[in-house]
Amino acid sequence: MSDPYLILGVGAAATDADIEAAYREGVKRYPPERYPQRFEALRRAYEALRTRRDRLAHELFDTSSPTVGEILDRAAPVGEPRRPDPALFAALLRGEE
Amino acid sequence: MHQRGRRLLIEGLPASLEWPREAGGRRLSAAEQAQIDAWQAEQQRDDPWHALESWESLALSLEGSEPPAPGSDQALRIALVLRRFDQASDLLAHTTPSPAPDALDRAVAELVERSLDYDPDDPEAYLRLIAYYLGGKELKEARRHLEPALARWPDNIRVLTAALDTAVASGAFKKAAGFARRILAIDPINATARERLVKAHLAHARKQIRNARPDLARRELEKAAVWDRHARFRDPREIIDALLTLTGDARAGASALRAVNQRLGDGLASRLVIALDAAAIGKKPKTLFAEAGLSKPSAPDRDDLTDFFTQLRRHLDSGASLPPEVRAYFETPLKGAARCELTYQELESVCETLRRCRWNAPRQAFARAALKRWKGAPFFALHAFEAKYPDAPWRASQTEIKRLERALERARETGDTRTAHRLLELLDGLFLVPFEDPQDAPLPPELGQDLGPEALPMLIEMFGLDRLLDMLGVSRAMKRDFKQLEREMGRQALIELLIAGLHPEPDDPADDDDDPFNTLDLFS
Q: What is the dihedral of CA B289, B290, B295, B301, to 10 degrees?
């Protein structure tokens, strides 16, 4: 699956409450009747990270590789179009961030 | 991203462990390397022991030099890793404890148990262990995990249900009824708990009859009746009631028993239901039916016979065994009933049910009757043979073995892979010398030296493929591949393939590193 942290737009240190808030916000923005695929991705991401136990299990056992799109998302998160920070981009390609 | 990026290293192991450093990043820690190794072992799925050991290595790496603080993320990580094999394979839910202490399931259970030291707050881990040990009737072990679970979650319905199951398995029916009541107090419409409560009261009533306490038995029966609102347990209640009456008033009891027998159809099936309940209170069916004035059951008709097997399956599904006195009482009429014209599917089911309870005399009778109607049918040939030689198949004559081999060929031709597989295993086992561990048996000296591939068919014939591969020190993975090949292509094709692998043609590109035979030196 795609990185659930990126789908929900939360950091690695997110708490149960942060995850729940991000999920609710996502559902408001992408209601299932209008955006079924986005909603499904949100739901799966929420289920993968819902509790501390789930987050640790995801960290330990999820074996899906990061995609190029995810690396770009990390380098230049959604917002105003801008050139990615070269240092961050290089670090991501080295697998350091 | 660094953490997720490690997934990219799985396929290139072990060389890929150096890639991050070569790309200018830092060296992977021991725990990170162990994690990638465990991911790969899990994905390969070919060696469960390797996967289990890989997860255990990761847990050890995560433990470090000092044990993590209870409740910390690191402690939870270790617990999750120790449970991972069971979680991914669902092994404990589908296995009963093996008698061998070094079996895979024992090792998995041990890791799950160790995980409780790091994360004692997960009821699921306790429940899996309790169910696993209950499945093997290891009640002491089940109780050892139940007690802390009950102390932590006294109102958890699943934990209470496990407690109820453990109490029933221990014969503590009063306790079981107490747990069922606690479940119903929390969840009044829990139909399963209600059923279990009725069953617990009925079992307790039987126990009280055995203990010569008819007053207490009567009380238990009354409680069972109160909870059995939909009369789903009317039959056992009436039978126990009649048996209880019989202990105090022979005439009234006999009359009640005859009435129940009549209501249940007055056939082989009704007698079986009554006999099973009578056996539970220590009464032999022959004595009981004589006391009740019930004659020996006559030859059953088709409906009665299918009903008999439905009742027998229901009894076996409950986890109970078939008491020897019940077996003895029904054996003769059942063998006679093999003449009854059942369909092919019905006979298949009959043979499998009789195999389940190791009731071999009637199983042989039914399999033979089926073979008269469907000549050479591999499924019934298998059952007829197994039933005839349940403990000593090597005593079979050559004619019988040839018959089995023909059945195997026919099963392969008709695409009946399941029966073919069972026949193959049976034939393999025929050549094992009894009471001897194949691992310890060396290749006889006269066969171990200077043998060419032409000896291969003879060796397979003599020892069976399994044992021969063991003696040759073939790895487990390769052995599995050979057996898979044999199932798919047949034994002759396997022999030819082995011979070709042992003695390749001069131009054969046998130096290819991928050629499995390069790793197997069979006769040097």
A: 20
State which residue of chain A sits closest to B8, comparing Cα positions. A65
Q: Which two structure tokens, joined as six digits, stand for A69?
A: 């799109």
Percent of chain B with pLDDT over 90: 53
- Please state, in angstroms and rounded to a whole number, the distance separating the CA atoms of residues B350 and B283: 27
Q: Global pTM? A: 0.63
Nearest to B385 by CA among B331, B429, B342, B438: B429
* Å between A26 CA and nearest CA of chain B: 22
Residues of A in contact with B9 (CB under 8 A): none
Mutate to test the interface with B, among A2, A72, A96, A97 (most CBs of B within 10 A): A96
Residues of chain B neighbouring A3 (CB-CB closer than 8 A)? 4
Note whether B80 contacts A74, CB cutoff 8 Å.
no
ipTM at complex level: 0.75
CB atoms A70 and B1 under 8 Å:
yes
Chains A–B, number of C-beta pairs less than 8 Å apart: 60
Residue type, B475: S
With contact defined as beta carbons under 8 Å apart, do B329 and B290 qualify? Answer: no
Mean pLDDT, chain B, as a whole number?
84
**The two structure tokens encoding residue B351:** 């043979």
Q: Which of B173, B70, B166 is nearest to B126 (CA)?
A: B166
Q: Which of B320, B461, B305 is nearest to B398 (CA)?
A: B461
User: Which has the higher per-residue pLDDT, B310 or A79?
Assistant: B310
Once rounded to an integer, what is the mean pLDDT over residues B417-434?
79
Residue B188 in tokens: 């009044």
